[in-house]
Amino acid sequence: MLTMYDLTGVWDFSMAQMAKGICPSAFDDTISLPGTTSLAKKGTPNLNRETGFLTDSYAFEGQAWFHKTIYVRPEQLGMPMKLTLERTRLTTLWINGKCVGSCDSLCTPHVYDISEYVTKPLVDITILVENTGYPTKGGHLTSPDTQSNWNGITGEIKLEVFPEVYTDHIQAYPNLEKKNVTLTMQLHGAKSAVFSADGITCEENEEDRIPPFQAQITADETGKASITIPLGETVYAWSEYSPALYLMTYRVNGHDVGTLSFGLRQFCADGNRFTINGQPTMLRGKHDGMIFPRTGYAPTDVNEWIRILQVAKDYGINHYRFHTCCPPDAAFTAADILGIYMEPELPFWGTITAKTDENHNETEQQYLIELGDKMLETFGNHPSFVMFSLGNELWGSPERIGEILRHYKSLDDRHLYTQGCNNFQHFPMILPEDDYYVGVRLSKERLIRGSYGMCDAPLGHVQTDRPCTMHNYDDIIFPKQTKDTAADDVQEIEIQYGTGVKKVKVSKSDGGLIPTKPVISHEIGQYEVYPDFNEIEKYTGPLKARNFEIFRERLVAKGMLAQADDFFRCSGALAAACYKEEIEAAMRSQYIAGFQLLDLQDFSGQGTALVGMLDAFMESKGLITPEEWRMFCSDCVLLAQFPSYVCITGEMFVAKVSLRTTLPTLPQHCTAEWLLVTENGETLGEGSFPITAESVGLIEVGSIFCRMPEETAHPLRMHLILSITDTDVCNAYDLMLYPAIGMPSLESRKDLCVTENLEEALSQLKNGGRVLYLPKETAQSIPGFYCTDFWCYPMFRDICNWMNKPVAVGTMGLCIQADHPALEQFPTQEYSTPQWYDIVSNADCAILDETPEGFTPIVQMIDNFERNHKLGIVWEAKVGSGSLLVCTSRLSSIATRPEVRWFAKSLLAYAASDAFQPEQEMTAEQLQQIFK
Questions:
Q1: Measuring CA to CA, which residue among 82, 83, 139 is closest to residue 107?
Q2: Less CB within 10 Å around the terminal CB: N or C of the chain?
Q3: Which residues, in sequence order, are bridge partners of residue 585?
């Protein structure tokens, strides 16, 4: 390249809607580029208030016109020239009034050869950008659920002038073993030329020179040429631990043509695991759907992507999966610098049909295949680009999918490939062409993640099982026995399809897969957190959080706005615990090669899925620190395995300690230490185990045996702390210790009526008595469910209704008055912890919507932002002259649980004490409405 003209800045602008091929006669406005019409507040303000996603305050779909006149040096006329629009929608270009052509790539630059159109120094440029009529729906690249369907040009805009002989389409194929790089390129203007190159390699803060190179290149009949360049005796490999980059400047016939960066790395699928340069690694991934609320589009500057990816890396993430989208070049550059393994994806969420299939769309399919070709060429030199997926939750022809994979693998062998993520859903398959598998199950019942929507039932272990640390997926991935099933017959079923439903034909066989390739658990987590309404003020860009405003108004209407911060904080604490349990289950599974979170950050669409520990801006919500998260999500994690978080005095506490590590090295002679300590600092037990420096993978470290004290008179909170000496590796588990007692009698006693009978309770209250009411059933209620809601209640409620399947309970954990005297003998946090599992699971959450504003249950279940019921499990009220304490958990049916005994003891003691003086009021009529 001889000259580059930067065309960013102010452009003439018009939103005239013209007939095809006709340009506006005048431009009556201006706009700054890069940017979008929404960011510039062009067009008509959008007054809608969306609830399922952020509202684009200047939403616009149609034609946007951009015009600029520039000056090109006269001596450059007749030289090769190209105009590049880095990131845009469908474009058509006119130069000096002549139509150059159109481009329709949604994720790679639009590059126009304008050499023959530039005939004078003043160059008149007109660009039409359209954000309708895409060749494909576009997945998360065009969805209002993510970055919005913006219109504009959001990346680099430049005009480049090249010498008469130059190269382009340059691709780097590094070879770590041979210590060289082979470059392929298109040679223009001659059949042969002198190619020279030099540069540097950068590793952390050190630099080394690439030996200067020069040789003759000769093009074949298609113009393609190649050259192999030795990199010297000392070479530097790229990985997450040492992201060494080679930065090269190349010339043709002495003229600077361009620069190139690449890395020496071998990212491989080795049996059931991934390796990087021969070293095993585990992918700790997150989902990315192009959610950028401040601008409404993905950034194209490297520094912003470094900020984003560094935040993820601070939380132990080493892998990004881009859901039906591909990020800009800046994202790959930032990942190169930081050492993040990237998996872009075709913007497709649908059915890949064979040509003979019904409803086959050859135009769309060829567009997607060619778009994949462009993605591989445009971004393929980046060492961070290690994996490629055909799309999300695809159905269709396995044979056709295999053909497409073979095409890509023959085109570019620098990456690993997969058919897609969670393809064929309940009926997964691994194709011969797959290098790895991404899914949520290996058959309908063989589940490899912890949570699911009700439309995809059965639910996962985090949703259904008592919290523990024993779960892993190894026996699911390789079951001890598998039954042979015939696949002769076919059935038609309904499946979740995006935010809707579709019918597909599948085999009735359910034997499932026995994988021979690395398995990645798909979109794990999805644990919902109540909205933080303080976040609304952060939406200063074109995308507005009017959904949050509506959710807040709903809470105001239910008289619970004062509890909003409590709901956010308590649901967030439970969601964090659920993420810990699920990620540790993956870490505990030697045959899980990686996982992809959904998500570390909130997803602002699809009903508003606030499933992140970070908000949509990739900024902390204050729920968990990076250091706390890395305890269970990093390249070196200590794991304890024990069956219950609830312990009994006098028992032997037994736990197995394991280590999941992919660190290249551990300190010599390091030791794993354990400490069991009470909340007030009393040590109950401690010990240590040696770890060999060569340890890698999943290693059993040792076992803990610790006798629980017998003399404890009251329940205690304990902390099990694991650590490795001379490192920052540690993990912690909170347990509860309960003295062994019998179940208290749930019968009336002096001055206290304990009853399951509503009429008896009302009679005693009418006479001014004290009542502990333990109803067997609650008429107006929602079932107790320990785990927080999956993804987003309104979205999956609608899907389940369409599929005629049961709807999720939809609650989000407990909000507890932890300092209330009713819980004095049952110490608790303000949020759900494992001691509450059986109590909640055997409770009806009474709907208390008709109680006055400010009426707050002692133990309240948080409802989702769609319903906002006031839900009570334990509450107290003055009823006439009587005092009422209600517990809707069926305690007698779970009386064998030690925590339940202490819970009952605490309620009984409070109800019989002088402290039982309720200030909130209810009427007998309200009680009858709730319980009859």
A1: 139
A2: C
A3: none
Q: How confident is the model at residue 425 (pLDDT cuts 50, 70, 90)?
A: confident
- For 203, phi then psi, to 5°, come to -135, 115
Closest CA to 636 of 684, 676, 691, 680: 691
The CA–CA distances, whole Å, from 663 to 285, 666, 693, 729 equal 17, 7, 10, 11
What's residue 693's pLDDT? 62
Report how far residue 646's alpha carbon sits from residue 717's, in angstroms, rounded to the nearest whole number.
10
SS3 of residue 184 by DSSP: strand
Where does residue 293 fall: left (phi above 0), alpha (psi -120 to 50 degrees), or beta otherwise? alpha
What is residue 702's three-state secondary structure? strand
User: How far apart are alpha carbons 126 and 133 in whole angstroms?
Assistant: 20
Q: What is the DSSP string of 909-931?
A: HHHTSTT----SEE-HHHHHHHH
Three-state DSSP class for 552? helix
Helix (H) or strand (E) holding 336: helix 329-338
Tokens of 59: 């939403």
Q: Up-side HSE of residue 177: CA atoms within 13 Å toward CB? A: 2
Residue 613, both tokens: 């520990």
Which distant-in-sequence residues (6+ apart) come within 8 Å of 837 by Cβ? 466, 467, 786
Does the structure show a pLDDT above 90 at 707? yes
Alpha-carbon gap, residue 389 to 439, rounded angstroms:
12
Asked which of 233-237, 266-270, 667-671 is least confident by mean pLDDT, the reply is 667-671
**C-alpha span between 418 and 158 (Å, rounded):** 35
pLDDT of residue 507 exceeding 70, the answer is no
Are 578 and 268 in contact, with CB atoms under 8 Å apart? Answer: no
Whether the predicted pLDDT of 358 surpasses 60? yes
Q: Which residues contact 295 (CB under 8 A, 6 or more apart)?
A: 36, 39, 154, 541, 542
Residue 253 has pLDDT above 60, yes or no: yes
> Which has the closest alpha carbon to 808: 867, 849, 858, 874?
867
Phi-psi label, residue 593: left if phi above 0, alpha if psi -120 to 50, beta otherwise: alpha
Residue 483 scores a pLDDT above 70: no
Residues 6 or more apart whose CB falls under 8 angstroms from that of 662 comprise 279, 280, 281, 282, 635, 636, 696, 697
Query: Pick from 183, 302, 175, 352: which is nearest to 251 by CA?
Result: 183
Burial class (CB in 10 A: 0-12, 13-18, 19+), 804: exposed
Angle between helices 362-379 and 398-411 (to 10 degrees): 30
CA distance 348 to 503: 18
DSSP 771-824: EEE--S--SSEEE---SPPBS-HHHHHHHHHHTT-PPP--EEEEEE-TT-GGGT
**What is the pTM for the complete model shown?**
0.95
Q: Residue 504: pLDDT above 80?
A: no
- In angstroms, the CA 169 to CA 184 distance is 8
The band of 664, judged by pLDDT with boundaries at 50, 70 and 90, is confident
* Terminal Cα distance for the chain, rounded: 82
- Assign residue 303 a region (left: φ > 0; alpha: ψ between -120 and 50; beta: otherwise): alpha
pLDDT > 90? residue 923:
yes
Q: Identify any residues that bridge with 158 across adjacent strands, giving them in sequence order.
A: 6, 84
The tokens describing 659, both together, are 């280590």
Amino acid residing at 357: D
